[in-house]
Amino acid sequence: MNNNAIGVFDSGVGGLTCVSELQKILPHEDIIYLGDTARIPYGTKSKETVFEYAKQDVAFFRKHNVKMIIVACGTVSAVMMTYPIFENDELSSGVLYPAVKAACEATKNKRIGVIATSASIKSGGYGKAIREIIPDAKLVGQACPMFVPLVENGYTDRDNEVAKIIARDYLQVMIDEDVDTLIMGCTHYPLLKDIIGDILGNKVSLISPGAEAAKYALNALTENNMLSANNENGKLELYCTDSVELFTENVKTILGSDINGEIFRTTLK
Amino acid sequence: MNNNAIGVFDSGVGGLTCVSELQKILPHEDIIYLGDTARIPYGTKSKETVFEYAKQDVAFFRKHNVKMIIVACGTVSAVMMTYPIFENDELSSGVLYPAVKAACEATKNKRIGVIATSASIKSGGYGKAIREIIPDAKLVGQACPMFVPLVENGYTDRDNEVAKIIARDYLQVMIDEDVDTLIMGCTHYPLLKDIIGDILGNKVSLISPGAEAAKYALNALTENNMLSANNENGKLELYCTDSVELFTENVKTILGSDINGEIFRTTLK
Question: How far is CA A10 from the centre of its chain?
Answer without folding.
Answer: 7
